[in-house]
Specification:
With about 120 residues, this protein is an alpha/beta fold. Helix 1 links the parallel strand 1 and strand 2. Helix 2 runs parallel beside helix 3. Helices cover about 45% and strands about 20% of the residues.
Length: about 120
């Protein structure tokens, strides 16, 4: 995985994730809105996307569906980041096209393990 897109309205979350992924030798793009995320994907598809479940003013499932409709969009690993996730929400996340769910708070080791699993 060489390029990871982080879509989250929290600047702190974006910066922390950026540092973690850079430590994994990944290039990162960090954006605050769905629209910015879609534009990045249209220019050059990332290998993976981490998207906040609760993006203000939009629905993250719509973002995921839009990415999946792009040419080769089904190949991108997409992880929803959220502060809570029931089993029902995890099933819903997968049904809309997410590969996994990342729970906040997270740390470097958790993200590394989760993304190593997604790589295989």
């Amino acid at each position: 995985m060489s390029h990871v897109l982080v879509v989250d309205d929290s600047e702190v979350i974006r910066k922390v994730m950026g540092r973690i992924f850079e430590g994994m030798r990944c290039q990162t793009s960090q954006v605050a809105t769905r629209e910015e995320g879609i534009e990045i994907c249209k220019m050059a598809l990332p290998d993976a996307i981490v998207v906040d479940w609760n993006l203000p003013g939009t629905d993250s499932p719509d973002f995921i569906r839009e990415v999946r409709r792009l040419p080769n969009g089904k190949q991108i690993k997409i992880v929803i980041c959220t502060s809570h996730c029931s089993d029902e929400e995890r099933v819903r996340a997968r049904a809309i096209g997410a590969d996994d769910v990342l729970l906040k708070p997270f740390d470097r080791h958790h993200i590394w393990a989760q993304f190593e699993e997604l790589r295989s």
